[in-house]
Amino acid sequence: MDSQRKQAETVKNNKGIQKRVSKKWTEVDENLLLDLREQGKTYPEISKIMNRTTSSLKHKYVRLNQSANDDKHHHPKEKTQQVESLLNGDSLKILETNAGKGNLTQVYKRYGSVLAQDISRESVEYLKSLELDNVEIKQVDSFRKIHKYIYEGRKFDVIDLDPYGLPSRYFPHVFDLIDDGILFVTFPKVGIQQINKITVKHYDVFWGINVSEASEQERIIHEKMADYGFRGLKKVELMDVVDLGRVFRFAYKVKRTSALVLCDLKVKGVNC
Ligand SMILES: C[S@@+](CC[C@H](N)C(=O)[O-])C[C@H]1O[C@@H](n2cnc3c(N)ncnc32)[C@H](O)[C@@H]1O
Asked: What pTM, to 2 d.p., does this model score?
């Protein structure tokens, strides 16, 4: 498989001498590259983040685009089963921040109205060509757009965050958009991808995860979600986990509540 194929990279050792080494591409690396490109990062910028040459990145990006809607990147079957097992009704308001080519949009539309967003023009054009009822499609940067929705006081019953890379930039703000509903989040596993200093720092700063303690990651992520929810006075409880190998797919129940309840205090008028 391409993701397991070794690619030669020219790197400098600590004496400044260039040598050719093999560097495996994992699926998470591939997803990170796709995500960074979608965010508008240049190849030299990505080269610094991923510690790979620009030519290797370009080559990989072209190959990935040739198989952009492959199931191996999207796991549509497992994600669909999870959504179907947790949703009820037909009048839910649903926000998909990373709709891609609509694998999940077509599932969500059975449960209500869907606002399906993606940054990629090609994906959005494809989504529009499906002519789905009850689906509003927008080509936007969802990281930014959610701030507008918060300002407008919009609320959703279901929000789905399904980026290629880490969903960190949606937090804690995304909780302001749900008062009573479900948040689905795709989360790349620690310990699978090539770890560089930036990734290590990222896991630490956003999630409090020490990458050398990968076994603790799930517990830490759920605790951090609860903390992020608390900032918007939301109780956040894990409902379901699907292990997709390279990534987790978490579903959280989110409910607006008081600081008293969140802090387990029963005395009226006391704030924690
Ligand atoms: C894993 S795919 C989504 C798959 C899709 N949910 C599905 O089930 O088929 C990630 C998507 O996030 C999009 N994306 C990346 N950065 C984005 C951003 N800042 N705002 C909106 N979409 C973004 C990419 O274009 C890509 O289509």
From this structure: 0.80
